[in-house]
Amino acid sequence: MMACRAMQRNRLRPREPVRRVSSKDARRGASGGAMPFLDKLKSYFQNHSQLFLGTFQRLAKEPVQTLMTSLVVAIALGLPAALYVGVVNLQQLGSRVETTAQLTVFLKKDAADIAVDQLRESLLSEADIISVDYISRQQALDEFRALSGFGDVLEMLDENPLPPVLIVQPVERFHGDLLASETLVVRLKGLALVDDVRLDMKWVQRLQGMLEVGERLAFSLGVVLALGVLLIIGNTIRLAIESRRDEIVVVKLVGGTNAYVRRPFLYTGIWYGAIGGLLAWFLVAAGFYSGSMAQ
Amino acid sequence: MIQFDKVSKRYSTGQEALSGLSLELAAGEMTFLTGHSGAGKSTLLKLIMLMERPTHGQLLVNGKNLNRLHRSQVPYYRRNVGVVFQNHQLLFDRSAFDNVALPLLVSGHQPREVGRRVRAALDKVGLLDKEKMNPITLSGGEQQRLGIARAVVHKPRILLADEPTGNLDPQCYHQKLWTCFGSSVRLASPY
User: Fold this and answer.
1) Which of A11, A236, B69, B126 has the maximum number of C-beta atoms within 10 A of its C-beta?
2) CATH level 3 topology of A102-174
3) What's the pTM?
4) Which chain A positions have a beta carbon within 8 Å of B25's beta carbon?
């Protein structure tokens, strides 16, 4: 099947005199693999720093593709981050009024000032109530105009649409006690002048509930998008591996370790992550900046 | 140095490339392997390179049983082997110099050392003046010589060449490193 013969013993030395570099090489003999440990360590770190820059240069050569992949990372990171920041901001707002059991009592629009004053006096005399603040229709209008920015719209209306309001502050035992506050609400609602009563605590609680849902949403969105980012980066790197298959084969054949082969791809991934992260940070920051400017 | 002991290789397709091959090569020996196409010459070479593992039998290189060599040790083993490939296996995204430098870079040589050794190897095959060129611009014979330079640059203890004569013009036969070529697979232990 196969003929195999030893032809000759040959030391494989060059026949002609060789240049100085080569003869110096020859004197060293077969020192192929043996190298000082320190040299190896040094070239290990050299390899890393070289790849750190080299992979970036490679990415910079294809700016459009790099930017697109980085943007995918940025959006996937930025969406849940923005949602989370928004939720946290609202939470801070909520925690400030969380414990107050303040009641907003909307009076009938045609309530006479004298009647309102009397109601206020009688409420103040109750043991359960510390303070009652009166906001007249005009005051409410001014405040609304100043805060909402819809002042011009209000000018177009024939009459002031806002009712007079009493802000009722109950004693401390009502704080956080929804049941006691509710009975107070019902009692106040029964009064002749009162149109409606809102319990601010209930609003806060509702807000809190919504925020919890928002937080959970941000978290689950984050998980899903993180998975998406992993898959996208994985796919991008896989394509890169596919396009550099020849190189991998050759490197492995000349004795490159798996770590050596893997290293450039890992660094490419690091760059995608870093650029994507920076872009995400920029997007979120820009989003909130423009948001606060609008306010 | 290289010892085949009743080595058989059967590919997953069922094709039996080698069956019960025994063969011994001493250090410093130069051996030519001939056989018709499909005889299993390349398979034998791949077994020494550990690109394939034998189905049966033992393969000892330098006293080490390659069957017992762990996968993580394969790269370090390969650094002692130089191969000239039939299809050159050159990389066209870098210069001739960088192609030859590859075996030195993967084993972590210092840049100064790399430069010196690569130029020495390129000089031996007569391509020193083309170190900056892309291999794709080189002729078939030059590519072949570049592959030879890459195979010897790290001073391997074993040198394998798969059909190395294909692209070489006759005068290359007498050039510096390579004195003559036999027909097909060549196994050589230069030291």
Assistant:
1) A236
2) Alpha-Beta Plaits (3.30.70)
3) 0.64
4) 6
